[in-house]
Amino acid sequence: MATIMKRQASSLSYLEQVRQHLSRLPSIDPNTRTLLITGFPNVGKSSFINKVTRADVEVQPYAFTTKSLFIGHMDYRYLRWQVVDTPGILDQPLEERNTIEMQAITALAHLRAAVLYFMDISEQCGHTLEEQVKLFSSIKPLFANKPLVVVVNKIDIIRVEDLNESDKALIESLRAESALVLFMSTVTGEGVMEVRQEACDLLLASRVEMKVKGKKHNEVLNRLHVAMPCKRDDKERPACIPDNIVRKREAMDTGEVKRPKRRLERDIELEQSEEYFLDLKSARVVFGLSIRAAGWNSIVVFLAVAENYDIPEKERWDVIPEVWNGKNIGDYIDRDIEEKLRQLEEEEDAREAAGEYDEEMWSDDDETEEIHKLAGQIKRKFSIMREEARVNRTEKPKLGREHGRQRERSESRLRAQMEDVGIDGEELAGKRRSRSSASTSRAEKRPRLSLSQSQASHTTTRSQSRPSRDKSGQRDEVMVQKTRKMAKKAQNKMNHDARKGESDRKIVTLKPKHLFAGKRTIGKTDRR
Question: Could you tell me the pTM of the whole model?
Answer without folding.
Answer: 0.42
